């Protein structure tokens, strides 16, 4: 679906997968004006596919658009197109537990002009791919590298938008994490390098005693759809969740004195990923006994159960797509 200044967004079309033809002077290549989303569809036992919270993803896409000067898409039109796309591809969704169809909608600036100004034309594209279970052999805690030099985003920047530049800014730290044998980077704030922001592609949660703490949505982190789902599940179970600043010093002290009992990340890809250890300033701090924590496991099982249609969808998160 294309956008032209004056005429607005056109009608979405479903076409066979293939390369995009873009002019080398397209603004996206030079100034990074682009936004994207990542969401999943699951096939239930009745053979029909369901999308997980698609409207919330489209709304977040539009918030990213607003920050990046991309014209908003029509929610209903994009939702309709995504439903049709999933229906067309439903046969590709594997039946095995934990498998799904990953959908990646994105918008790129296509105006052919070298000059820093919002583009006057855009292409909206959505691609999808079947994905296997993130934890094919059971949920395993992952080692995480705490980045103390580079920052991913600062308040006032574009950290709360899902835009390519945030991920490009993180590649250097991701390399360092991989060298340390770590799966992802834990980002600290861009001013003092003290407060926890988020993990590479996940929001971060810590359990101090009976309180669950997650950094607030202050403008530099992504408002994860899974983060919101997990907060609602926890509060529904009567668990206290505080959205408050949490420093890496508090986390390290909690790990040393045993008060920090669990840590986990949340995101579309892994759902809930227990954190097994934090590598911070050359030190390896183990979380709990290195096994997935009680709440991490319960959250993972509950949310994946809802997504697979094995547990009641009390919050109305699953949306069935039309049958082919
Ligand atoms: N933070 C970042 C930077 C991400 O890329 C993601 C993945 N979209 C998340 C958090 C988690 O968001 P969600 O739960 O919506 O997938």
Walkthrough of the structure:
With 324 residues, this protein is an alpha+beta fold. It has 2 domains: 130 residues, Aminotransferase class 4, branched-chain amino acid transferase, N-terminal domain (D-amino Acid Aminotransferase, Chain A, domain 1, 2-Layer Sandwich); 167 residues, D-amino Acid Aminotransferase, Chain A, domain 2. Helix content is 26%, strand content 28%. It has 8 helices and 17 strands. The strands form 2 sheets. Strands 8, 9, 10, 11, 12, 13, 14, 15 and 16 form a 9-stranded mixed sheet that branches. Strands 1, 2, 3, 4, 5, 6, 7 and 17 form an 8-stranded antiparallel sheet that branches. The protein is globular and about 60 Å long. The model has no long low-confidence stretch (mean pLDDT 95). It binds 4'-deoxy-4'-aminopyridoxal-5'-phosphate. Its EC number is 2.6.1.42. InterPro entries: Aminotrans_IV, Aminotrans_IV_CS, Aminotransferase-like, B_amino_transII, BCAT-like_C, BCAT-like_N, BCAT_family. GO terms for molecular function: branched-chain-amino-acid transaminase activity. It comes from Cohnella hashimotonis. Keywords: Amino-acid biosynthesis, Aminotransferase, Branched-chain amino acid biosynthesis, Pyridoxal phosphate, Transferase.
Keywords:
D-amino Acid Aminotransferase, Chain A, domain 2; eight-stranded antiparallel β-sheet; 28% strand; globular; binds 4'-deoxy-4'-aminopyridoxal-5'-phosphate
What secondary-structure arrangement, pairings included, does this model have?
Blueprint: E1 2-4, E2 8-9, H1 27-31, E3 34-36, E4 39-43, E5 49-52, H2 54-67, H3 75-89, E6 100-109, E7 121-131, E8 142-146, H4 164-168, H5 171-179, E9 184-188, E10 196-199, E11 203-208, E12 211-214, H6 225-236, E13 240-243, H7 248-257, E14 260-267, E15 271-280, E16 283-286, H8 294-308, E17 318-320
Parallel strand pairs: 8-9, 8-15, 12-13
Antiparallel strand pairs: 1-2, 1-7, 3-6, 4-5, 4-6, 5-17, 6-7, 9-10, 11-12, 11-14, 14-15, 15-16
The chain binds 4'-deoxy-4'-aminopyridoxal-5'-phosphate.
